[in-house]
Amino acid sequence: MKKDTKQKQSIKKILSNNWFILKLSFSAAPFFMCYMIFEAIKQQALIFLEHTYGIKFVLEAAEFRKPFSVVVSFLLIVFGAWAVSFLLSGIYQNRVSQKGLPKIEKKLRDMIYAKVKELDLECYDNPEYYNDFVLSIAEAEKSITRTHQILESIFGGLTALITRGVFFLTTDWLSMFFILASFALTFIFSQMLNKVNFRNRLEKNPHERKRAYVHRVFYLNEYAKEIRLNPYIAGRLFEEFEGSNSELRNVERKYAKKRTVLGFVARYLTNDFISDVIYITYLVFRAAVRRAISYSSVVVLWNTSGGLKRNLRDIADVMPQISENSLYIEKIRSFLNYEQKITSERKLPVPEERGTLELRNVSFGYNNKDGYILKNINLTIRPDEKVALVGYNGAGKTTLIKLIMRLYDPNEGEILYNGINIKDYDVNEYRKLIGTIFQDYRIFAATVGENVVLDEDQETLERTGRTAVLKALEYSGFKERLDKMPKGLATELTTEFEQDGIDLSGGESQKVAIARAFYKDARMVILDEPSSALDPIAEYQLNKTMLQAAEGKSVVFISHRLSTTRHADRIYMMENGRVIEEGNHDELLRLKGKYAAMWKAQAGRYIDM
Question: How does 146-176 read in b/e, with b if 16+ C-beta sit within 10 Å?
Answer without folding.
Answer: bbbebbbbbbbbbbbbebbbebbeebbeebe
